[in-house]
Design goal:
Helix content is 39%, strand content 20%. It has 254 residues and is α/β, with parallel strands linked by helices. The strands form two sheets. Strands 1, 5, 6, 7, 8, 9 and 10 form a seven-stranded mixed β-sheet that branches. β5, α4 and β6 form a beta-alpha-beta unit. α3 runs parallel beside α4 and α7 packs across α8.
């Protein structure tokens, strides 16, 4: 082009060009609601599949998808569609904090619950601006479960010997080759209790409830979407289309 017109050409990046467009310019980025789906058992890392659990929702993949959706030019709101019975606690917390981070940037996040959004699936949802659920969505399950499989006796019967080296008294407490000692079992219960308290406090903060209110409907109980609405765990009954329409209207879109 410079050769053809015989004059200098100034170049700017696409991002610079988009940022200088008037908001009502028809050539600007189209306003839209982004939809991010989060399906399967919750684990850390990337999404995929795992035997025997089937589809796995990786917190790394979901967090990346949420940030990518929020950074798109024209994104006014995000609908997070959750269909998960839970899984890894740390991965659930990672996704909860990413939702919180996006909302702090001024982009509303609306959750749409599928057939199930329980335990970690509820944890990642509880801080959203609004939560939609179907009447028969299985949700809640505010609780912690933990334990281990111990294969030591089976290996003994097969003549397999395992020697373990531990760096401290509790370092090998989750070893699959032996049962918990009394001290290890007590420590495992303490860790579960700490995790439960954090879960209840997070829900209480996200839903504007007291610790006692959440605890009274927590402790691992599951609820239908209708019950969850009456208990204050969700805001509205409806499907993903209802969530998208709410997100668009609440963010000022036509």
């Amino acid at each position: 082009i410079q050769e053809n017109i015989g004059d200098g050409v100034s170049v700017m990046s696409l991002e610079e060009y988009a940022s200088n467009l008037p908001e009502d310019d028809d050539w600007g980025p189209m306003e839209h609601v982004a939809v991010v789906t989060a399906t399967g058992m919750i684990d850390r890392g990337e999404s995929g599949s795992s035997f025997p659990f089937g589809r796995v929702m990786g917190s790394g993949s979901v967090c990346d998808a949420l940030r990518q959706a929020a950074s798109q030019p024209g994104a006014r709101a995000i609908v997070l569609r959750i269909d998960s019975g839970g899984g890894d606690a740390l991965a659930s917390a990672d996704m909860y904090h990413t939702v919180e981070e996006i909302m702090n940037e001024g982009i509303p996040v609306v959750v749409s619950m599928g057939g199930v959004a329980a335990s970690g699936g509820y944890y990642m949802a509880c801080g959203a601006d609004r939560i939609f659920a179907d009447r028969m969505t299985v949700t809640g399950s505010i609780g912690i479960i933990s334990g281990k499989f111990a294969f030591g006796d089976m290996l003994d019967s097969l003549g397999v010997t395992v020697e373990e080296v531990s760096t401290g008294p509790m370092a090998g407490m989750y070893s699959p080759f032996r049962r918990f000692s009394d001290a290890e079992r007590q420590r495992a219960f303490e860790l579960m209790h700490d995790g439960y308290v954090l879960f209840v406090e997070t829900v209480a903060d996200g839903r504007g409830m007291t610790f006692q209110e959440v605890d009274s409907i927590g402790r691992g109980r599951v609820w239908s979407g209708t019950d969850a609405l009456n208990l204050g765990l969700v805001d509205q009954l409806g499907g993903i289309a209802d969530a998208v329409m709410y997100a668009a209207e609440s963010s000022g879109m036509d």
